[in-house]
Amino acid sequence: MSAPLEHLVPSRAAKKARFDSDSIYPILDEALFCTISYSIDNQPFSIPTSFVRYEDKIYIHGSVGSHFIRQIATGIPVCITVMLVDALVVAKSAFSHSVNYRSVVIFSKAEIIEDYEQKLASFEWLTNKVVPDSWEYLRPVKPNEVKKTTALAFKLDESSAKARTGMPNDEEEDLELPIWSGLIPLSNKRLSPISDSLSENISLPAHLQHL
Predict the structure, then answer these.
(1) Does the first or last residue of the chain, that is N or C, have fewer Cβ atoms within 10 Å of its Cβ?
(2) Residue 22 sits in which domain range?
(3) Does a structural domain hold residue 172?
(4) Distance from C-alpha of 13 to C-alpha of 11, rounded to nearest angstrom
(5) Is the pTM of this model over 0.70?
(6) Residue-wise pLDDT tens digits, 176-202
């Protein structure tokens, strides 16, 4: 990552910002969803979608008929955000409450993936991120399904990470108050799969048995 541009530096707690791939990539790899924001004719839009990082780009997919996909595929500037929440930070005063989090902000423009094999590969990357090791198990994607889907890539050249960790930062005069303070940890994890009516007699595949 090159030296940070001005718009990448947060206005608050700027010292918490990181601009290196070692800080940014792990957050992107853990998060399943991002939010893509853009503006058309001064009308703001903000759309959540699944994504995957591969090397120095992230990829999304969508129907060729999607208004959202068609708009950002023109190459307009977008802002992409990701946030993982690790804990609620409960202080002795409401004013000092906070959140332990890890986040990434990306400024980029969409690149349309035209090459069929690269496009198919991006489908595999995203599928295996959402449901690990599932691509080879599933029915192969048909060529007409690839044609019906737009794949977009976004460079990570203009991106930054920011995080908060640790216990509450109470005001000095509040430290001795008999009020509980600490963390309420949060987690987002995959639970045991639930079969639909068509799969009740089908054994759970190996890639799902560890969930």
Answers:
(1) C
(2) 6-86+100-167
(3) no
(4) 7
(5) yes
(6) 999 999 999 999 999 999 999 999 999
